[in-house]
Amino acid sequence: GGDLGVFTRERMLPAFSDAAFSLDPGEISQPVETMFGIHVIRVDAREVPAFEDLKESFRNAIMNERIARAESTYVSGIEEPAAVTIAEGALDIARSIADDPGASLPSRATNKPMVEYVGGAFTVGEFREFMQNQSPAYRAQVAEATDGQLETALRGLTRGKLLVERARTEGLEPPAATIDSLRTATRSEIADAARRLGVLGEGASDDPQTTIRTALIEMLKGERDVIPLGQVGFALSERFASRINDDAVGEASRRIEEARTQVPVAPPAIPSVEEPTDSTPSP
What we know:
By secondary structure, the protein is mainly alpha-helical. It has helices at about 15-20, 50-80, 90-100, 105-110, 125-130, 135-145, 145-170, 175-195, 210-220, 230-240, 245-260; strands at about 30-35, 35-40, 85, 115, 120-125. The strands form two sheets. The chain has a three-stranded antiparallel β-sheet. A two-stranded antiparallel sheet has the order 1-2.
């Protein structure tokens, strides 16, 4: 337990806030359960700011609500006619890709729809590309997500694709300043990756191919951190075509296993959730 100080309704979980803000000063609540445990709340005092202090925040809140409502109406106008449908088996595929986004897939599987809509689909290949650019923690969450959570995520990704398609149909383009900013950020990411690999900057290797090959081997052995490409990965995949060399898959697998056996692998850490120490706030 402890004093949580002064807080607003939005700062706490709904169940906690509902109980706290229903009390008068000096009152004590019945036990309240949240994801953090069981709480007994006592309200010591209420502080009501002057309207002048809150005027600007009220204005911003109303404006944001109106914008959100307008955006929701616009998106619904695009999504509903599209008749978005989750394909059979898509949730299992999503979990499998989240477990191993680097696994090779035949072209037929890559083009298989995970979400279908009028005039198009969100495919396995698109989902895999998305997952390859996410953090290991996020991929783990997807792999362990419930069916409902996965459906929501897939619909959200499809909604984004529908919006992009609508923008292209309407001839909408991002401002030149935005494009320049993205180009600058991409060049910076590429240069940073090149410097970390030792192929750019002071002491750069005269043989970049050998340097990169050595770095890849060290990454497989766990002797070097993997260099994240971030959004650069999307740019590279768009510009340079790629294909799987079936004859080399077996040899690559053998070499990977050989490299892995040379380094002991520690068991993954089990995340823990700390219980909050304060359970008697003063709203």
